[in-house]
Structure formats: structure tokens, C-alpha cells
Amino acid sequence: MIELSPVFDTTTRVPLYIQLYEYLKTEIINKNIAKGSKLPSIRALSKHLGISKNTVEGAYQQLLAEGYIESKPRVGFIVKELEEPLVPSLSETQQHSPVPPAEQSMRYDFRYGHIDTTHFPMKAWRKCMNEALEMEPEKILWYGERKGDFDLRREIKNYLYQARGILCSPEQIIIGSGIQQLTSLICQLFDSKTCAIAMENPSYDGIRSVFLNHHFQVLPISLEEDGLNIEELETSNANVVYVTPSHQLPLGMVLPIGKRQKLLKWAAKNSAWIIEDDYDSEFRYESKPIPALKALDMQNRVIYLGTFSKVLTPSIRVSYMVLPNCLLERFSQIFYNYNQPVSTIIQKTLYLFMKYGYFERHIRKMRHTYAKKQQTLITAIREYFGDNATVIGEKAGLHLLMNLKNYNNVDELVIKAEKAGIKVYSAAKYWFGKSGTPPSYVLLGFGGMNEKDIIDGVRLLKKVWLSNK
């Protein structure tokens, strides 16, 4: 057996499986455990260290998810070769910074998450803000209600029923300053020692970081053509699952009703929880927005997350969640001493913006605007790339995935584009580790670009990427 002698700290709240995972990861990075080495079996290491098999399995699963080891049938767990340093030097960090010095000169930026600022209803927003500022000081100059402004929560309740089919009360709605902040609160409702959280693979890396920072075991669940592999979820030891059923991030598929029902049945049977991130459901182009998973939740097992970042603007930092009634008391007990993080003035402004119908009109306008941009991008890709590329995830949202055929190095594509003044993005970060990551998936966001720049940018990408083909 490989000599493994981790020192566990029993005085800390960090779970043992995380401590073991960190120890093994460090040993692999430092090459104290060589590539190709076979790790001890779960049973053997459990007996050697005097810890439970679940603890060892949790550590191994995290190493598998992040690509440090692989599981070979009838062989066991094998340490994989690391193709590049996992802790880059300062010069490498600067060289590969997500925000390179040259970004200011980028002519075309296909960044996901950008919105069309030219269509923001500034006049209506300013009118609502001015009216909010005329309210009594007690309503706008204090922290406000811990769950958020009641008037705003009532408007959100009405909107969710009309647009997403969700029936809830204002008391179930919690206002927060972003999906990640709200997810952090959700994490504190559960025990990281007893809860394992399943996530779609690929999935939103920003939320994955939140779970890991709260020391939860995160289990990757593979995707099928129609979304989450329910059978794989059922055989996992997860008791919480994070999903994007209305528009899977980043692949774009919609979870069909059959799988939604199976997912809800799994949650009810196992007393498990579903976290539904409905991040951009307003922008569906081939049909009307479909009802949320929460709308089907008869057993109160779904925690629903929504945001105003995509449909309005991320700068106001307003998101919300709908908690099942059975979690409200626990929420109040844990966060009784927390203040509301969102400005009361912004909340009152948004309340008035929704009350007067500006919000609904803005959604209709932007759905039409983004649909035209998306079609412009798809048409340009087909015109300039033809059979050399395929488009993935075109039914909804503010981004597409583009798969350039016969290319196996997405980083090379990104670098070539950047040298030509075009910013595109690798989709690799959404996958757990490097195993199974499609090498040539490029993420193209179009929300913040005008149609002319979309066409010109794609035309230039063709010149840059296919000039030597």
C-alpha cells in the first residue's frame, strides 16, 4: 500500500473527507504520489486510517470530479497525469489572466452575461427611483425587512404565478444580492457533514464554488440529450441536487416533463431537496416560456432561485428565492441576526417598476430584441462556417455554444481570436475536471453586442480560425 499518513484535525469543522481530499490532492500535485499509481481501495484505506468507508469514498469522489484520479474497472483508482501546473507561477497567472491587459482594445466581445444597455428603460427607472426617494425616511433609510421589502416580494409573487406558474406567498420569498449569495444562505440550511450535493455535469462553475467553499461534497451527474441522467442521480448518495431545468447551463437543453416528474419523485422518496436555478427563463425563442419545475412541486421539495440580472440589469444586485414552508422556520432561526443586503431604495424602485407595468413591457421588448440578435448570430455562423461548425443550445437564453469540427484545442481558438481583437470563451470551465470536456466548445454570448458587430465578429472568426484549413 502507498504510504499515506494524513494528520486529521478533529477540532475543526472541516469534514474528514475534505481533509483527506486536500491531503491526497497535495500529495499528487507535489508528485509524492506518482502518475499511474494505484490508490488503496476504499475498504483498505478506511481500515488503514481508522475512518469510515464513506469518508474515503467522499474524498475519492472529489478527486475523480476534479480530474486528479480515474476509476478503472477491475483495477481501481489510478492517479492521472497532470498536463499543466495546477498552481501557476505569478508570470503564468498574469499571462493567462481572465482579464488580460489587451482586453480594453478588444473590438468584439462575445461575453456571456452582458446585456443590451441601449434598451434599458432609464427614463422609467429614474421616474420610479425619484418616487421611491419621496417615500417616508423610515421606508428607505434603514436596512429594511430581513427577507426583503414586502411590497417587492408581493410583486414577485404575482409575477411568478403569471409567468412561471408558481403559486407561493410573499412570506416564502427571500430577497438577496445575487444567486451566489442566496445559494450561500441555502448551504447554511443544510449540514455539510451529512449532505452531498449533486450537480449537472457540465454546470455553472460559480455555484459549484459556493458549494465547495461551504465544504459540501459535490457529485457530478452526467447529462443525456434531454438533460439530467435521473438513473445516475438515483444511484448516487446525493440528498440535494442543483439543476437548471428550463435552460441547462451551458448546453441549453430543456428538462422534459417526464424527467421533471422523476426528479420530483426522487426528492420526495429520499426526503431530498432540489435547487432550481431559473436564471434566464424569460428569454425563450421557439415557444412560450415553459412552467418552472417549482410549479409542479406538490411535496414542497424545490427551492427556487430567480434573478433580475439578465432580464433587467446585474448592477441593481437583486435576486430572490422561494423557500418551501417547512424551511422557513429554520431560515428564521439561523439568520435572525442578518440584515437585508439589498438597498431599500433599490428594492422600492424595483417594486414601483413592476407595479406600474414597466417590467412586463421591458421583458416583451427584450425578448424580441434578443431573439433577433440570436438569429443574427446563428445565421452568421452558418453562412461563414457552413459544415465546419455546429450550433448548440439555440432555443433560449443569451448565449450559444459553437462546436468547430476537427479542432481539439479550444484554448488555441481563444488565443487566436484574442490576437485578432475578438474575445470568445472556452466552455471547459463548466465541466468537472478535464475528463469528458468537449475540446472545441466555444461559448458565444450575444446580449451586449449589436447585430452588425455580431456579423463582423463571426466573419473575422472564420478568417482567423479557418484560414489555414
Automatic annotation (TrEMBL):
Pfam families, sorted: Aminotran_1_2 (PF00155), GntR (PF00392)
Keyword vocabulary terms for this entry: Aminotransferase, DNA-binding, Pyridoxal phosphate, Transcription, Transcription regulation, Transferase
Residue span, HTH gntR-type domain: 14-82
Matches recorded under SMART domains: HTH_GNTR (SM00345)
Keyword Lipid biosynthesis: no
Matching InterPro entries: Aminotransferase_I/II_large, HTH_trans_reg/aminotransferase, PyrdxlP-dep_Trfase, PyrdxlP-dep_Trfase_major, Tscrpt_reg_HTH_GntR, WH-like_DNA-bd_sf, WH_DNA-bd_sf
GO molecular function, one term: pyridoxal phosphate binding
Required cofactor names: pyridoxal 5'-phosphate
Gene3D superfamilies from the UniProt entry: Type I PLP-dependent aspartate aminotransferase-like (Major domain) (3.40.640.10), Winged helix-like DNA-binding domain superfamily/Winged helix DNA-binding domain (1.10.10.10)
UniProt family annotation: In the C-terminal section; belongs to the class-I pyridoxal-phosphate-dependent aminotransferase family.
UniProt protein name: GntR family transcriptional regulator/MocR family aminotransferase
Taxonomic classification: Bacteria, Bacillati, Bacillota, Bacilli, Bacillales
